[in-house]
């Protein structure tokens, strides 16, 4: 039995030294030291030995088990060190190489425009209000003095989910909802940026979806001159101090009187050119005094309160300011186009 134990020890240690993988070493551990291993089998046969031999063979068996265990532990440590060394060789990073530049993005031109306009109007005392893009027919049309049979609805025919739910055609519903929340008590001074949708053919100047910024100011004694002063401040800040505006009579169902607002051409400075169609002026937005009926439907007494409202297309503002000739550039995700606005 002594010779058998020593042979097992020598055989196990030899195989451990030859092993090149941790998996093989684990298999050797199980084979020699497991419950069904040869060392255990030898120990089970000790009952056949004489009382004098048992402690000697028992001590030898423990020594054999300990020797195999130490050999396994030493081999596992060596294999782990070899694995670490191999990874260090294969995964080495040459820190002497020059760093690769990380490409940084920038704000989308529409986002930059909205941010600039918001900052301007916040400076004038306005706050930013938002509302749902899926609107009810009431807030999108009826609360803005556009009953179901009004012909002006045809110009804003949109995407309907049901007879009463649609994708909003303007951000004006946010104004109606805000006025309702104030329950007939002013003042209200808000701008409403957001995405709107209209059934339209996409071309260089039209899109079935676009961004709008609308404004509303309701208080005692608000006049058309207040509207002109606010829009003049906006135009000079956004387009340049040398620019001026003019107001032309127009019609919108939710304002009375209504005006179209033009800004002087920045190319010809009012002399007339191809860009402004020889007029010296470029249309930028629509505006007017809030219709008494709209005030009344939102809970305000038109005999006590008055207000003005305006609405502008963000894409149009961006196109005029940055010389962009096609509205589709904003939505095609062309990196060559977007890269021009990193510093905007």
From TrEMBL:
Locations listed in the record: Cytoplasm
Recorded GO CC terms: cytoplasm
Signal peptide segment: none
Cofactor: Mg(2+)
Enzyme Commission numbers on file: 6.1.1.20
Free-text remark on how the cofactor is bound: Binds 2 magnesium ions per tetramer.
Coiled-coil intervals: 2-29
InterPro entries noted in UniProt: aa-tRNA-synth_II, aa-tRNA-synth_II/BPL/LPL, Phe-tRNA-synth_IIc_asu, Phe-tRNA_ligase_II_N, Phe_tRNA_ligase_alpha1_bac, Phenylalanyl-tRNA_Synthase, tRNA-bd_arm
Entry keywords, A to Z: Aminoacyl-tRNA synthetase, ATP-binding, Coiled coil, Cytoplasm, Ligase, Magnesium, Metal-binding, Nucleotide-binding, Protein biosynthesis
CDD domains (alphabetical): PheRS_alpha_core (cd00496)
Listed Pfam families: Phe_tRNA-synt_N (PF02912), tRNA-synt_2d (PF01409)
Top-rank EC class of the record's enzyme: ligase
GO terms assigned for molecular function: ATP binding; catalytic activity, acting on a protein; magnesium ion binding; phenylalanine-tRNA ligase activity; transferase activity; tRNA binding
GO aspect biological process, one term: phenylalanyl-tRNA aminoacylation
Residue ranges annotated for the Aminoacyl-transfer RNA synthetases class-II family profile domain, each copy included: 117-340
Residues bound to Mg(2+): 256
Catalytic activity reported: tRNA(Phe) + L-phenylalanine + ATP = L-phenylalanyl-tRNA(Phe) + AMP + diphosphate + H(+)
Keyword Ribosomal protein: no
PROSITE patterns: AA_TRNA_LIGASE_II
Family designation: Belongs to the class-II aminoacyl-tRNA synthetase family. Phe-tRNA synthetase alpha subunit type 1 subfamily.
Subunit and interaction comment: Tetramer of two alpha and two beta subunits.
NCBIfam families in the cross-refs: pheS (TIGR00468)
Protein name: Phenylalanine--tRNA ligase alpha subunit
Gene (name only): pheS
